[in-house]
Amino acid sequence: MKSSGARVRAVAATIVDAVVHGGQSLDAAIANNEQRVDANDRPLLRMLCYGCLRNHWQLQSWISRLVSKPLRKRDQIINALLAVGLYQIAETRIPDHAVVSETVEAARQLQRPKLAGLVNACLRRFMREDISSTEAADEMALWNHPAWLIETIRHDWPDDWQSILTANNERAPMWLRANAARNSADAYLERLAAADIKAARLAGFADAVCLDEPQAVEMLPGFSAGDVSVQDAAAQLAARWLLRDVKGRVLDACAAPGGKSGHLLELGGEGLSLTALDSDESRLASISENLERIGLNATIIGGDASKPEEWWDGRPFDGILLDAPCSASGVIRRHPDIKLLRRESDIRKLATLQGQLLEALWPLLLPGGTLLYATCSVIAAENDEVTGRFLRNHSDAIENDVLPNNNIHDLMRRKACGYQILPGSVGLDGFYYAALQKKKVS
Question: Which of 122, 210, 254, 376 is catalytic?
Fold first, then answer.
């Protein structure tokens, strides 16, 4: 009978290899493979995968010291397996003897029995020589980020770059959004307490609750009934920010998977008519499912926000939320594969697309209306450089630089245009916002 512990390590190596060498997203790689292990083993599986990707460059520097001869391309999965084993020894409380035996057996389960001895020797040498305590080989190993991203963040945030990189490598807390149409965050906090789930509020975030420990959604009171949703508190700023000055027709461009759409509907009530748009047809179902769970409706359209002539009915909107496609550099702690999958060349392409989206959507906005531009990025080229350039080129656009409430003032970094929350600030993800208003016709 094959060891279930070894199977978890083998599957973890398969997932890590799919990201590192196959270019898959971590979410997709896990979804494609997690059914291969027992349900009880899936938390360990996820922990190993996330840990290996968070610490990728440090682990690779150790492997380069331990493996004298590069592995053949067809045996690259053993590199991922070594990373799984080294991560366990360096960062977990799993007994070393269990790590070695299960990881060596995993090599056999991966159909690489001749390399089981190499895995055994590397792990034992790692412990014997206490390699984990040695100085990092370079900046990439020290900060566990690619060199281009370290340099970009250091350039954009000269006083904060180290804290940003550190936050990116930490585990993110689980934030919830109480459905304001049904219950307050304080009332939901009481429901959590009654279920013996510890949580806390954050001043200035009216609907947000942060759990002390992550929970399966089926354990959350009222989740299936739509009383609460999972959403980072920084992302929850969008709906209240836009609706502060907007009523009537609202467009949520790039809406999938529908979290912000749901929040807009919960707050807007009967006075809000929402259109949720996304260009990815495969993700439209996620918008429908999320809105169905909370019992609210929107007009859901598949279409490219940069080509409104293909889907717009000609009726202008009072407000537009543009949650623009971006590098996602502000949510790396939730998606550590971003550090491996993103390329420096992506940033210019994304900035071009972001500018195109602003240009295309601006004519759809009524005079006096607001377009809230948002990204989950910390990179200036995607944020204030995009919105600043737009403002310079549009005489009918002005920035509304008034924050939605004073409680978030200390969390928001003022940029040349807009505001930035840095990842890790009181447990929040990194988000950028800029409120662009169209001047009224005189």
Answer: 376
